[in-house]
Amino acid sequence: MRTEPRLRGLAILLLALGLVPAACSVPPPADTAAGAVEITLVGQSVGSGSQLKADAIAEAVRLDHPDWTVTSMAAGGAARLVEKRLAGEADFFLTDGVRPLELEVRGPLFPDIDFESASAYRIVMPSSITQTHFIVNENTGLTSLAAIVEQRYPVTVGCLGFSEQVLSKVLEYYGASRAQAEAWGTKVESVSVASAEGVEALQAGRIDLGITLASIPHSSFLGISDGLRLLPLGEPGLVDLMEEWGYTPTTIPAKTYPFVDAEVPTVGALQSLSTKPGTPDDVVYDVLAAVFNHIDLLVAVHAETDDLLTAGSVAAAISLAERNGEPYHPGALRFYRELGWVP
């Protein structure tokens, strides 16, 4: 029987615990091994949320360790980030999605290597909660994901990477393969829905449905008052299927966006700051200490940080990561144990 907290429960816990001051202070920096320390933090694209967080973490580390060489850089997209991880150029990075899905989607793209071992990582801290958005143009008349298959609707879907795999799983759950859907006119366009280009494509009808995983509220959707709707993903069997991948049930609350009138069930993922398995324990410990010492820098670019980095939410994140086969780094666990947050 599963005992891990679901993401919806985690979100409630975050809000509650965010109001309670920490009962203990941040542990002092560890005795980092002698010698020059050089680390590179890698985000995705310039100006993206992950890059802003990587920059903020890098600045926190520089403030506490002016003798370290700390670089923060944008990989240039999710695929480029994977390449830098495989090349050993990313010492710390923000995960792109849940690990089981990464192995299924990315692994086949690298047939000549053991992708699972080559891309292995250890988590340092939770970074953000992201919800899967299924945004449809109201002109389609679609009110559910099941209707795409039931009506054999020739839907044009805008998505990238993991989102395309989510589409395939949804179609399969309702009894249709991608090949069958394509036969009745379904198309996939490589569009980042959580962008000005993606929103414009949805509103103009060039794509009927957009699928993206994003923190809420995502700025790209805040200016939309009508013409679009969120489709729910709440059917128990489909939720169970997504949980096998590492997703967990959550909701997008009413009024998150102007066009959302009622709470919408969906699934989400907990994304994390991660590092290479071989990163020294003391370096990871000191990076975490720097983040906690200068938490204001991270909160300035991602307000949710204040709720994520609490005793309850970190313990819940570690439990969820263990379920998904994503181990935490020993240096991070030592830091949290000294805070009294984990056994």
Describe this structure in words.
- 44% of the residues are buried.
- With 343 residues, this protein is of the alpha/beta class.
- It has two domains: 7-128 and 271-339, Periplasmic binding protein-like II (D-Maltodextrin-Binding Protein, domain 2); 131-269, D-Maltodextrin-Binding Protein, domain 2.
- α2 (49-64) packs antiparallel against α12, α11 packs across α12 and α11 packs across α15.
- Mean pLDDT is 88; it is low at 1-24 and 30-34.
- It is built from 15 helices and ten strands.
CATH topology of the largest domain: D-Maltodextrin-Binding Protein, domain 2
Structural class call reads alpha/beta
Catalogue the unreliable spans: 1-24, 30-34
Give the strand content: 15-25%
Itemize the secondary structure elements and their pairings.
Elements: H1 7-17, E1 38-43, H2 49-64, E2 69-74, H3 78-86, E3 92-94, H4 99-106, H5 115-118, E4 122-137, H6 146-150, E5 156-159, H7 162-173, H8 178-183, E6 187-190, H9 196-204, E7 209-214, E8 228-230, H10 236-245, E9 248-252, E10 264-275, H11 281-293, H12 295-301, H13 305-308, H14 311-323, H15 330-339
Parallel strand pairs: 1-2, 1-3, 5-6, 5-7
Antiparallel strand pairs: 3-10, 4-7, 4-8, 4-10, 9-10
Could you list some keywords that capture this structure?
15 helices, ten-stranded mixed beta sheet, globular, 40% helix, 343 residues, D-Maltodextrin-Binding Protein, domain 2, disordered N terminus, alpha/beta, 2 domains
In short, what is this structure?
The chain is an alpha/beta fold and 343 residues long. Helices cover 40% and strands 19% of the residues.
